Amino acid sequence: MESCSCHRKRIDENKSNKKAILRLVIACVMALIFVIGEFIGGYFSHSLAIMTDAAHMLSDFASFLISLFSIWMATRPPSKRMSFGWYRAEVIGAVASVFVIWIITGALVYEAVKRLIHDDEVIDADIMLITACVGVFFNVFIGILIAGYIIKFFPKMHFIDSVCTFIFSILVIISTFSVLRDAVLVLMEGVPYNIDTDAIEKALMDLPDVALVHNIHVWSLTVDKIAIAVHIAVGNKSDTQSILTDASNILKTEYGFSSITIQVEHFQKEMETCETCQKIPQWK
Asked: What is the per-residue pLDDT for 272?
């Protein structure tokens, strides 16, 4: 007797999760060590550019940590209260981390503006160069290293540190904005960018005896787990069980949906003019 496919899937997921956890733990430790090192180096050298790059690296550390957290939360079984499980915890954590990183970046930009106005900050170029040289092996933008050399040989040009801070702050905002955008789309239960509902409708309409496909709802439980609910109207003499099986296979194998809900109903003429059954217009 064959074992349950769900059971086999769970075993495979556990094996892949263990490998992913090990890699993420190593990445987290390395990122955290470097973030702390950059903040310390930036503090003692009085370089806001290095501290801003540390904030950039902090976003990578946060993403690793959120991935670890999501893997752990995904192991928690669904409950009557949390019927889909705890997948959205990953999204909530991502939003929180983005706002924390933006606050840190905003504070560093504020300090950079103050330095440009008062022009009274002395930067230790030697510590800045040492930190930047070590950082090049990790994630530091080569611009910090160049800025360090300029400040060392031309001390009056220490404003370059503030300029680098502005540049890195923009990079931090850009790199984290996509995370926030994807998280908001998940929380608003929007259709993922890689899903074409028109193609799904056509694939289901191509099934034998399917007269109408309507009320297609696609949303994400989390970034990589997508759900769908759809109504399929068929002829009165159709084999509904066969259509249900074929439709489920298409949605699972071709589109990778992790949660599928299909309502099969008999086609009625008034469905052609029913507003609820019509295709949802594109958002412009």
From this structure: 67
